[in-house]
Amino acid sequence: MNDITNDVVGNEAAAQAPAEKMVPQSVMNQVLSQRLAEKEAKIRAEYENQQRVAPQMAPTYQAAPMASPVDTDMLTQTVTQNIQQAMQRKASEDQVNQIAQTYLAKMAEGQKLYPDFNEVMKDYNPAAFPHVTALLSRIDNASDAVRELRLNPSKLATINILAQSDPNLAHAELLKIGESAATNRKALAEAQNTQVPPPLDRPHASARSNLGSSGAKTISELRKMPWLRGL
After folding, report:
1. Which residues contact 129 (CB under 8 A, 6 or more apart)?
2. Is 102 within 8 Å of 137 (Cβ atoms)?
3. Could you give the C-alpha distances from 118 to 196, 197, 229, in angstroms and in order?
C-alpha cells in the first residue's frame, strides 16, 4: 500500500516539476560567432604587437651613400697641382746638382791657384753649410773666399748665419772677402816672381880718377888704353 502511495506521489511530483528549457540553435550560433570574433581579434592584436616590436629588435643597416657625380674641374685641378709639384721637385733637384757641379769646378780652380789649397780645405765639409755653398757657387772668386773662410772660422760662422737670415747681404760680403783674398794672392805671386837685380859694382877709386869731370873718358885718355893703342 505504501509502495503504491510513493509511486503515485513521485509521479505527481514529476508531473508538477517544470520541464527542462532547450537553447535555440540561433542563439548558439550567435554565441559561437562572438567567441570566434573575440579569438580572431586577440590573435590580430598579438600579431600587430609583434610587428611593432620587431623593427626595434632587428639590427639596423645604414644605406651606403650614393656616389656623388665626378667633378671634372676639381679632378683637373688636382692633376695639374700634382704635375706642378713634381716639376718643382725635379727643378729643385736639378738646381742642387747644378750648384754642386759649379762649386766643384770652382774648387778645382783653387787647387791651381794655391799650392796648399788641398791641405787647407781637407777638413772642410761644404754640406754642413748649404746656404754658404750655394752663395759661393755664384761668385767668381769662390776658391779665394772659401779658403779665407776656412782659415778664419769666425768669418765662416758669421757668413753662415747671415746666409740664412739675409742671403743678399751674405752674397755681398762673400764678394768682398773673395776679392780681397784674390788681391792678396796676386800681390804675393807678383812679389815672388819679381827678381831684385844684384847691386852694380862700383868702380875702384883709381878707375874713377881716370874719369873726367863728367865721368866719361876723353879721346886722348881712350888712346892710352892698351886695347886702343895705335889709333
Report:
1. 156, 160, 163
2. yes
3. 31, 34, 68
Asked if residue 177 lies in contact with residue 155, where contact means CB atoms within 8 angstroms, the answer is: yes
- Amino acid letter, 118: N
**For the whole prediction, is pTM greater than 0.70?**
no
The CA distance from 23 to 185, in Å, is: 144
CA angle 40, 41, 43 (to 5 degrees): 65
64-77 pLDDT, tens digit per residue, is: 566 566 677 776 77
State pLDDT tens for residues 171-224: 999 999 999 999 999 999 888 888 555 555 555 555 555 544 455 555 565 555
Question: For every residue of the chain, which 3-state class applies, written as one string?
Answer: CHHHHHHHHHHHHHHHCCCCCCCCHHHHHHHHHHHHHHHHHHHHHHHHHHHHHHHHHCCCCCCCCCCCCCCHHHHHHHHHHHHHHHHHHHHHHHHHHHHHHHHHHHHHHHHHHCCCHHHHHCCCCHHHCHHHHHHHCCCCCHHHHHHHHHHCHHHHHHHHHHHHHCHHHHHHHHHHHHHHHHHHHHHHHHHHHCCCCCCCCCCCHHHHHCCCCCCCCCHHHHHCCHHHCCC
